[in-house]
Amino acid sequence: MSYPPHTGYNFVDTLHHSIYPAINPTKSELSQLSKVVLVTGPGRGIGRSIALRYAESGVACIILCSRTASELDDVEQAIKKINAHIRVHKFSIDITEEAKVLAVAEAVKKEEGRLDILVNNAGTGDPWNLIADGVTEDYWRTVTVNFKGPYLLIHSFLPLMVEMAKTT
Questions:
Q1: Where would you tag: which of 105, 109, 128, 145 has the fewest CB atoms within 10 A of its CB?
Q2: Alpha helices in the chain (DSSP H)
Q3: What pTM does this model have?
Q4: C-alpha dihedral over 110, 106, 95, 42, to 10 degrees?
């Protein structure tokens, strides 16, 4: 099958659609015991897969952040099916709202005392359009979610992660 150049599929010869042995999260050398992981955008696609793979690797806690609360509940159930002992915290937030991101960072610090891994996966995109045919508000929403959101998460959680790194 031939893909258009802008999709990025032509950068590699082999596309993997399943977990192969070298990246199997259940392998003991890839285990992440005692780690606290935060995943944004875990409701579907890559974010959901990342959250579930961390559950398979045996982390202690997975923190899920999404705008859609029902997606958070579905992912939590899937995580608990993999490993019922993993602590799951769910936050229904818009990652572009600084006060809400800071509140999540404070809650994580209070409840877990650490964050080892931050997966900045949340994002959005619009269909490919010519600039003349695009909607300005849609464009800026994409820029805000994809640039401001990850910045706010790094800005809010980096102090906790640095503090954690100094103690280990």
A1: 128
A2: 45-56, 69-82, 98-111, 136-143, 149-167
A3: 0.85
A4: -10
Chain centroid to CA 91: 12
What is residue 66's three-state secondary structure?
A: strand
On average, the pLDDT of the chain sits at: 89
Cα 135–Cα 140–Cα 141 angle in degrees, nearest 5 = 100
Cα 33 to Cα 55: distance, rounded to the nearest angstrom: 10
Domains along the sequence of the chain with CATH: 26-122+134-167 (3.40.50.720)
Q: Are 147 and 125 in contact (CB under 8 A)?
A: no
- Per-range mean pLDDT, top range of 98-102, 130-134, 163-167: 98-102
pLDDT in tens, 82-109: 999 999 999 999 999 999 999 999 999 9
Q: Using CA atoms, how far apart are residues 159 and 138, in angstroms rounded to an integer?
A: 32
Q: Which two tokens stand for residue 18?
A: 């399943």
pLDDT at 8: 66
* 113 Ramachandran zone, left/alpha/beta (phi>0; psi -120 to 50): left
Cα gap 2→10, rounded to integer Å? 9
* Main-chain dihedrals φ then ψ at residue 41, nearest 5 degrees: 65, 45
